[in-house]
Input
Amino acid sequence: MVNITKFHPQIAHWISSLEAASRVLITSPGAADGDSIGAQLALRQMVKQRFPNAELRILNDEPLPVRYQFLSGAQYVHTPESYAATRESTQFDVAIIVDGGIDRAGRVRSYFEKATTTVFIDHHAVSIEFPYTIRIVEPAASSTTELMYHLSQTEAFKTRVDSDFAQQIYLGVVFDTGFFRHSNTTPDVMELCAQLLRTGFDFTRVGERGMLERSFSSLKMMSETVNRAELLAEGKIIWSTLPKEILKKYQAVDDDREGIIDHLFLTRGIEVAVLFFELNSGKTKVSFRSQGNHDVAEFARSLTEHGGGHRKAAGALLDQDISKAAPLVLERLERLVRRID
Output
């Protein structure tokens, strides 16, 4: 159960900072996913309703994926390029990062660090240390959007829950619970979603467009990636790679990778699924899914400080290229799975 009362001192400090602020920055790590974009847009509404004269900017290192552009408020999400085109100041009074630490915010980090007050709001238990002015971290929350909802209903904000706000919260919850399949799906989560649905937003559209819909290029790319899959540890581990030439072959974008690992994981007998993405930088992004006794967040963290997530769903960013990263990770993972089993 999410306990907001323990954050009252931090919330009071946050509110006093917002009261004195003229310019407010909202960001999240890397490419926005359903939880981080839902949390950013919901937070924008929270602050805008409470402080209507504040100048708010949502800046992310990467463009908003097409799948989320139908959301109310999506037009307010910018990259450093589109923001710079307006020739506005890069100085903010309050900077807020949600759903992950500033170490993965890319080019937005320089804006964030110059702010007078920095705020970190997250539900992940593990993150890199940074001297945030205010930290609000609740691992008991299923998602950052669930935490954001509870913050929105405190006396400090009293946010009006209309259909736009409800769909933003709902998207993040269904994303991080895997459509209520993961172990972080609690009775409180279901009760919250029931409240959100009563506002009348089209939850089918939000779920399908935000979670399931994919381009034809993505479909072809997923087919090839699944076809490349291999098994390890007597069929307990399934893994595949997604080199950048495959994205180029199908004229796909980074967001088209979303959901591929779930197709690998939902293979009978699998305990851990691993998908390696080759990045243009030469680094490798790794995604993990698990069941049983395998804590992939802890495993991801053991690989690099840029690793972590949830016990059943995690990721890591490795400095090696994919040809070197994959064998190293798989060797360690296979030893882990055999030892636990």
Residues 322-340 form the longest helix (19 residues). The mean pLDDT is 92. The domain at 5-211 is CATH 3.90.1640.10 (inorganic pyrophosphatase (n-terminal core)).
